[in-house]
Design brief:
This protein has 356 residues and is mostly beta strands. The protein is 9% helix and 50% strand. It has a four-stranded antiparallel β-sheet. The longest helix has 20 residues. The protein is globular.
Length: 356
């Protein structure tokens, strides 16, 4: 047997080559596919999934805890206990993590040890870290619609009335936070310095029940991912003017934009992931529909690998009785329906990685 020795330079060269090949594959428009699926049995419902690309961790709130996985291997690395949450946000500078629970739990992302709990009003649901001000926004379908927390010390700095029930949000990193208002078919525009809403962009009947939101910061285009009808509505981020609509799958509950590939993506409860390609600053087309798994309606992006990660639950009884390809009914708009879709019994958690 021959022994092969690689110098540090050689190892780095190989790593750079593999990274470059991945980037080239994405830039050439090679089709997306399911690269890996990991299953973990457990108890409790799930909602959002979050990839901490810098810290290389994947967070999945489930039941009364937040499960933590290594983002590369998807092996379990621990959990945040006593945290019945729906979503997670991380400040990469302070290395503080937060989950949308009541109270909100704040932890050290390196050690996973809880730092403090933060009392908030309303019913915490969605959550996002806003990088320009280093604040965390915790969203609620009841007032106050948004509670704003300083990511450095965990203090509450204010609340905002968004004018309706918020779902997903996106920041341009330049002073504006855009928030889907699901029950009003609008997008709220928030001045993150003044902590107030400066505009509401109406979807004008082009789409209803926006649950996901994607933002192309460079070209200033918003994509409201809607449930009824199942379309992505493209708007100008500067003034909310309508650009186009594109079809997506049924039951969306999340999505985003990948600046390195110029792709919009939307995950749906019908077991599909819609990929919309930007062919120009104001031109778009549906490039692909990837078959994932029923109920895989939320997703997150690993910005370092350009991979999209989705999660779904397969109830234990259903897993034994039905084939994996059996479609699930599409999710309906409304907080009650969303809560009703959270399985609280024993179920298999599917972590699905999609990429090139």
């Amino acid at each position: 047997m021959k022994t092969i020795k690689l110098s540090l330079f050689g190892i780095l060269a190989v790593g750079c080559l593999l990274s470059r090949q991945t980037t080239l594959a994405a830039s050439k428009g090679e089709p997306y596919k399911v690269l890996k699926t990991v299953q973990v049995m457990g108890v409790g419902g799930v909602d959002y999934v979050y990839a901490d690309s810098d810290g290389r961790k994947l967070y999945v709130p489930r039941g009364n805890e937040v499960l933590v996985f290594d983002l590369d291997s998807l092996k379990s690395t621990g959990s945040i206990t006593n945290a019945r949450a729906r979503g997670v946000a991380v400040d990469p500078k302070s290395h503080h993590g937060f989950c949308s629970s009541s109270p909100v739990v704040m932890w050290d992302t390196k050690t996973l040890k809880t730092i403090k709990t933060i009392e908030v009003e309303g019913r915490p649901d969605g959550i996002i870290f806003e990088p320009m001000t280093e604040k965390v926004y915790v969203f609620s379908h009841s007032q106050p619609n948004a509670t704003v927390i300083d990511a450095k010390d965990g203090s509450v700095v204010g609340t905002i009335d968004l004018g309706g029930a918020p779902e997903q949000a996106a920041s341009d990193g330049q002073g504006h936070l855009f928030v889907d208002i699901e029950d009003k078919d609008k997008i709220a525009v928030v001045d993150v310095k003044a902590l107030k809403v400066t505009a509401h962009y109406d979807l004008q009947g082009k789409g209803g029940g926006p649950a996901g939101l994607a933002l192309d910061i460079k070209n200033k285009v918003l994509f409201a991912l809607c449930r009824e009808p199942a379309v992505a509505v493209a708007l100008k981020a500067d003034d909310g003017k309508f650009i186009a609509t594109l079809p997506i799958g049924k039951g969306t509950d999340g999505g985003g934009f990948n600046a390195s590939t110029h792709d919009v993506f939307s995950s749906q409860g019908d077991g599909t992931l819609t990929i919309i390609k930007e062919t120009g600053p104001m031109n778009f087309e549906v490039a692909q529909t990837v078959q994932t798994k029923p109920r895989a309606k939320t997703c997150t992006l690993d910005t370092k690998t350009d991979r999209i990660i989705l999660i779904a639950l397969e109830p234990a009884v259903e897993t034994a009785a039905k084939p994996a390809s059996t479609p699930a009914p599409a999710e309906k708009t409304g907080e009650g329906k969303k809560k009703g879709g959270r399985n609280n019994g024993p179920a298999m958690l599917d972590i699905i990685v999609v990429g090139h």
